[in-house]
Design brief:
- The protein is α+β, with helices and mostly antiparallel strands and 273 residues long.
- The chain has a single domain, classed as Immunoglobulin-like (Sandwich), CATH 2.60.40.
- It is built from 3 helices and 15 strands.
- The radius of gyration is 21 Å and the shape is globular.
- The protein starts with a helix and ends with a strand.
Length: 273
């Protein structure tokens, strides 16, 4: 009997030590985020592991240059607040803030998906801001490396030939994860043809670094009403793609975008199908 008790205690102790060791081995567990947080949000309090926000991302990415992330934000029924902003952060990236989205209208719930570059094993974070100014965070640890320096899939000539082409298509409900209250609205996917050069990629012929050139500004409106605006950085993948929910009114959707070189891309787009 005593041997069994000792065995149970030994197993429990080993399991606890294994969990502690695994957590300690995760790079950037606290230090990177604690140093980064004041630069992005100042001294504002952030509710971690908030029940209002869900973040989905692969534990181990197949392609570090195109890591899919999906975010859902839902306020409780009867909650008078609205969702005003969403910030995506990759702790260990050279430029950690991947994108900040600002939403128009009375958004009590939303779903949004995109693709990020992950440069080394890192926490990916989604921080939602509600209309009362409070911040709510979800995080996911992603094992990936080399995403910011990975060569572009197309050569420069091919990439620049189609620079700025816009594509908008309908997305079936549920493709952003488990259906939520946001499923009562429609979902669209916007893609912008752009190499989104990070400044860390090398030209295979000249062996020189390709200068940074990426989409840093997007505004999507339905009629005169803002659906969302986005400020982006080098952590967004090549050919930025954004899936989002919105409340359709039958009006055309206008997209205005720009990159860091000052090139502008726009058009009035009708969702296909």
């Amino acid at each position: 009997m005593h041997r069994r008790i000792r065995l149970v205690l030994a197993v429990a102790l080993f399991s606890a030590l294994a969990v502690t060791a695994a957590a300690a081995q995760e790079p950037g567990a606290d230090a990177t985020w604690n140093a980064l947080k004041p630069d992005v949000f100042g001294e504002r309090a952030i509710e971690e592991s908030s029940p209002l926000i869900r973040l989905a991302a692969p534990k181990r990415a197949e392609d570090a240059a195109m890591v899919p992330v999906e975010v859902e934000v839902m306020l409780p029924e009867g909650d008078p607040r609205t969702v005003s902003k969403l910030t995506l952060i990759v702790d260990e990236n050279p430029a950690p803030v991947a994108a900040t989205f600002t939403f128009g209208g009375e958004r009590h719930d939303l779903a949004l998906g995109t693709r990020l570059r992950v440069n080394s094993y890192s926490f990916v974070r989604a921080i939602a801001e509600t209309s009362d100014g409070t911040l709510h965070m979800a995080e996911r640890y992603v094992k990936a490396s080399g995403g910011c320096s990975a060569p572009a899939m197309k050569d420069e000539e091919a990439a620049l030939k189609n620079l700025g082409q816009l594509k908008l298509k309908s997305v079936n409900a549920g493709e952003l994860g488990d259906p939520t209250k946001a499923s009562r609205v429609s979902q669209l996917q916007l893609m912008i043809r752009h190499p989104n050069y990070s400044g860390l990629q090398m030209d295979p012929l000249t062996r020189a670094y390709i200068p940074a050139k990426f989409v840093d500004d997007i505004e999507v409106k339905q009629g005169d009403e803002l659906i969302f605006s986005m400020t982006g950085g080098i952590s967004l993948s090549e050919d930025p793609a954004i899936r989002f929910t919105y409340q359709p009114t039958g009006q055309e959707i206008r997209v205005d975008a720009a990159d860091t070189d000052g090139s502008r891309f726009n058009g009035e787009l009708k969702p296909a199908g």
